[in-house]
Structures are given as C-alpha cells and as structure tokens.
Amino acid sequence: PGGARQQVESLMASGRRRDDDWTPSADLGEQVLARLEAFDDGLHDLGPPDIDADPTLPRSLLAVCHRFDGGRLFHEAITLAASREYEVVTAPTGTRWRVGDAGGDPIFVDEQGQVWREDAETGEVVLDGTAFDRWLLGAIETEAMLYDRDGEFKDDIFDEDGELVPAVALAQLRAAAKRDPRAPGPRWRLARRLAR
C-alpha cells in the first residue's frame, strides 16, 4: 500500500496534467473514498484503483481514478465508467470525456477538470462542478442524505407517490450549490425546483 500511495503522490506532483490550478484540498480523492466506505458494502460497487490511468486526464479526475476506477454508487444513482472506457466527445470548447451518469443525466469532464451535466429533461449541458473530485464528493454527500449507514432509505423522505418530499429535495440542491458555489448547474437546478 505504501508503494501505491507513493506512486499516486508522484503522479499528482508530476505536473503532467492540464488542470494546473487544481489543488488536492485535503486530498478530495481520499475523502471521496472515505465517504463511500462509511456505508455497508452492498450500497456501492467500486472498481479497482488505476494507478496507470492516462496521465493526460485532468488531475481532479485522476485523483478519483487512483482511488477507484469506475463504479456504481448508491444503487446506481451515480455510475462512473472505468477510465479506459471514457467516451471522448468533441465540444465547442475542446475535448470532454463522458465519465458516467448521475440521476439519469450524462456527466462529462473537460480538459480543465470541470464537470458538465446534460440535463435529461431539457437537453441543456450545464457546468455542474469546477473540479471532478469536488463535484463527486458533493454528489456523494447529497445522495447520502437519502440513506442510513445500512444502505436503506431513511424514513419519511418519500411521499405517497414515491417522490422525494420537497424539504429533502431542496436540502440536496442547497448542499450541492454550497459545495461548489462557482458552478452554476446546482444553482440552476435549485432555481428550477423553487419555481415549481
């Protein structure tokens, strides 16, 4: 384990990434893994770490790949592809990798490590996070609001129609907006929810 951690630290410090402004504030990749490990095993299915992931990928994406490479989180509420399976997409602003889905919406990461979410309802692609590891930690924290440690849904979070009660849905959206205030996507979804 010590050797793998040293390899990760060496890769992180090598400067071979495109998102040079990224800093591992208290190593968000490690925080992501620790947060997932707080739940029972059946709630998540994580791929093995990929220390050899393409070093040209953004650092914030590599920070996660070096901890686990792909997986299904919260009974597939969030799905992440293994790094070798990312779909490369050409966008007007450059290359993006489709890295998975969250809540049924496709998730992309650009060359700067920013997260773009395609809203399944409107088809709009919105900046949802300023760094992939920060975005993923926020997505995990908001999804975790629905579950107890045993991986079961908490009591009283759904109405009779199986929809999230408004207070819980709003709490999730507010938490996502607070996690990454420079990303407009969470605030956009919060505004849409409040307009209902």
Q: Topology, pairings included?
A:
Blueprint lengths: L1 H12 L14 H10 L7 E2 L12 H7 L5 E3 L4 E3 L6 E5 L2 E9 L2 E6 L4 E4 L6 E5 L2 H13 L21 H14 L4 H11 L2
Antiparallel strand pairs: 1-2, 2-3, 3-5, 4-5, 5-6, 6-7, 7-8
Return the structural class. Answer: alpha+beta
Which value, in Å, is the CA radius of gyration? 17 Å
Average pLDDT, rounded to a whole number, is 84
Strand content: 15-25%
Number of strands: 8
For the sheet with most strands, the description reads: 8 strands, antiparallel
| Helical content class | 25-40%
Straight-line N-to-C gap: 50 Å
Query: Helical element count?
Result: 6
Shape estimate: globular
Poorly predicted parts: 1-26
N-to-C SSE series? HHEHEEEEEEEHHH
What does this 3D model show about the protein?
The protein has 196 residues and is of the alpha+beta class. The protein is 34% helix and 19% strand. It has helices at 2-13, 28-37, 59-65, 132-144, 166-179, 184-194, and strands spanning 45-46, 71-73, 78-80, 87-91, 94-102, 105-110, 115-118, 125-129. A hairpin with a 4-residue loop joins strand 6 (105-110) and strand 7. It is globular.
